[in-house]
Amino acid sequence: MAAYDALSPVWQDLDRAMGQLFMMGWDGIAVTPAIRTLIEDHFLGSILLTAHNLRSADETNRLIHELQTIAYNAGHPVPLTIALDQENGGVNSLSDEAHIRQFPSAMAVAATGSLEIASDVARATALEITTVGVNLILGPVLDVLTNARSQPLGARTTGDDPQEVSRYGTAYISGYKSTGIATCGKHFPSYGNLQFLGGGQDIPVITDTLEQLSSNALLPFRNAIANGIDAVMVGGCALVSSGAHMMHACLSREVVTALLREDLDFNGVVLSACLEMESLIRHIGVGGGTVMAIDAGCDIVVLCRSYEVQQDAIAGLKLGVENGMLSKDRIYNSLKRVLKMKSRCTSWEKALKPIGLDVLSALRLSHSALSKMAYRRSITLLRDKSHFIPLTDLSLGPNEVLLLSPLLKPLPASVVKGEGLAGSMGVCSDDVFQSSTAIMQGEETFTDFGRRLGHRLKCKVLHTSYTAHGLCSVHENLISRAGAVIVLTADAHRNHYQSGFTKHVAMICNSQFCASNERREKPLIVVSVSSPYDFAVERSIGTHLCTYDFTRPALDSLVDILTGVCTPEGTLPGTGRKKRHHAKSAHYWLVEEWSRERDEKALNNLIRAVVEGMPSHRRSALVGSTTDSFLVCRTGIGEAHFVVRNSSTGALYGFCSTYFLADSGTGVIGALFVDPTRRDQSIGNSLHERAKRALLGRSNLKSIQLGSGFPTTFLGLPADDPGERQRLRAWFGKRGYDISASHLVCRMILRNLSSWSLEAEIIEVLRESMIGYDTVSDPRDANIVMDFVQKHSSRGEAELYKIATADRKAYPIIHARDLNDGSILGCTILCDGRSLLAQYLPVLRDSTEVSGGLLSLLIRPAATDANTVLQGLVLYGIQRIKAQGLRTCVLDMVSGESGVEAASAIGFTVMHSFEGGVQLKL
């Protein structure tokens, strides 16, 4: 049976079938007559969009919709494939500050050590471009840098370890495919060891034999195929090894059919490299090259821009079929593979009814947070022998910092629009920028970086560029007067002038002399803003950082590192990571959603292990907690809890609870704890990152805070032990939380109520105050109290009051009123250890004595007599508790040192102290 017999009759038109075997592009931001003709008259099936076509998300959305409409009106049975390179880092075809987020390159993501971040970045990237109508992403890059220090790919690929490239490639595929977009791995069989031979060889060559490739560079492609990658792009490089003499890999049956199809068992779509190569045009011709590519096994031939070349390719394919070089079955076999891919990633409903940019607006907050986190965790400190980082520790004082940067072509994602011709010298300080000459576009990125660094350091940052002319007297004078020097390099291992310049600067900095003629080292920090291999083994460079790209977010993170806001967490991917043995296994912990049916018993065991593992002098806030202590099951509160577990034994190694308060748009990380025997393995880090991303994915999110008033196990960061408190502050501070805005929150207890008495002085103050205390009985009063609570609560306490309001008999609400104007001054909820509500204050259950509790104590912040209000509410509550025969009173949520002192004056002692008000900086 012929290949086309199983297809719709519409495909019996051979011209229509052959049109699906091309992917073409053009120059310009609008549909041209040429591209319209290709779609309408030649039934072009795929479009390649590049930065030449795209200016904004909105215009891209309209452009793609116009292209699909042209195809639909021309009678295309299926929509166009719309392909895009969106690798992140320095390779993004679509950039739009308003709607498209900038994410790190593949190598930078690998430097985070987190496969979860890789998957999340891939998903976020794919979501953004599918929203504008793209349905095929030309990624991931699966090349293995087997000769890492001389390759043009640089940070576009994961690194030099085939196993690691494979793992991250699989994570990217998973993230991409979760959005419905089609994926295309590249560049088969590998661009990881290209040689530039010269001597008339005008294209790069692969010198590895096919056997060498198969044992190393092909592993990521094998695993990508096993994980369902939709397409593979075969490169245009030559193969000159023994047994393989191909001018272009994508024209070789040995590479495409024998190696990719048969050896790797790939049944998806094969794309050729763009055939608009000078060497191919000169030696073969595009028409002949198109026939050779299809005959080799390619399904789609790519031709980027020239309309004349594109016409030549179409004519060549038709001629190849007419003269019998290609059979119709060969055309229809490729067509079926192309149609199968399209069926998975597009339809006319999707193509003609685009999602719209509102989705991008909704994703902006979560994607921005993901970008910032990924960049921060990617910055890699390769060496810092003299501890020059952060610069804030060097006591620079009034001394200037010198920034030296190479002249570079700007990245589309980082360039600031402007004009200019040459780079020279400027000054970057708090609010002044002066330039002696115009600044070329590539320098504006570094100028802006210098300005921001100077503002943070509160000192003057001098910025000038360097070129292949090397070090000049101006550079030497600036180095001499500077308190510290920062040299930026980009692929210095290939741009040798950068390497020589930097080593010369290092020699000067290492031989500076002070007034007493003693030799001293001037602080020198070298930052590679592309490949990390610039000075990876150059020991004369004592401090070496890598950002992997020089986009704005990367340089923002670099400013944070240099000024001590955060510490560099990245590690050199691949063999560099193995040598340093710095890749914590915990970066690979699998985080799962908590399941009551599966995990309830294991969670109770974990809670007991944590409590038992705490020192006796620091009694855990988890005492008395059970699984129910973390489940609220309330309308208006979204909850999601996460675990790291042993799937074989069912044991839990860590737990994290999260809540989303829809009314206020507040996300809460309510608890985060790890089995004491498994700490320092980054289980907590894995749980935290998963919880944070879950909260950032909530629509209408306004803030994320640590600690919860409902349930009330942890009111913030535990602060009972000074050492542990400092560790937690540093841990969460490195993850973007504003620790400086925290305040004291305590849980307190008063024992032996039967023998307790209040000082006469306090009683007198309470009697003289114009404040009345009572329980809420009237529904109207309940509404007034709820209004007060909604206004003054911040951690979910309102939910406790809703429960108490619904059952005022079981949970009386005590409120304080100003007797002059009747306004509410404060309130609290009364309960005891026998009540259901006590599950949210586990300590009530654990007490050896029968206890009562005052929950969610709220005082109007502006009240001048706040301490009196607190003492009056507590005294009224104690009287009710004593009347029930209870012997202990637990007071929850006492805020601030003043409040703690007021409660202490009554006789309460602190059980647990916390730092409340800690929020993630969004």
From TrEMBL:
One of its GO terms (biological process) is carbohydrate metabolic process. GO terms for molecular function: hydrolase activity, hydrolyzing O-glycosyl compounds. Keywords: Glycoprotein, Glycosidase, Hydrolase. The keyword Ligase does not apply. InterPro entries: Acyl_CoA_acyltransferase (IPR016181), GH (IPR017853), Glyco_hydro_3_C_sf (IPR036881), Glyco_hydro_3_N (IPR001764), Glyco_hydro_3_N_sf (IPR036962), NagZ_Beta-hexosaminidase (IPR050226). It comes from the Eukaryota. Residues 14-340 form the Glycoside hydrolase family 3 N-terminal domain. Belongs to the glycosyl hydrolase 3 family. This is Beta-N-acetylglucosaminidase. It comes from Exophiala viscosa.
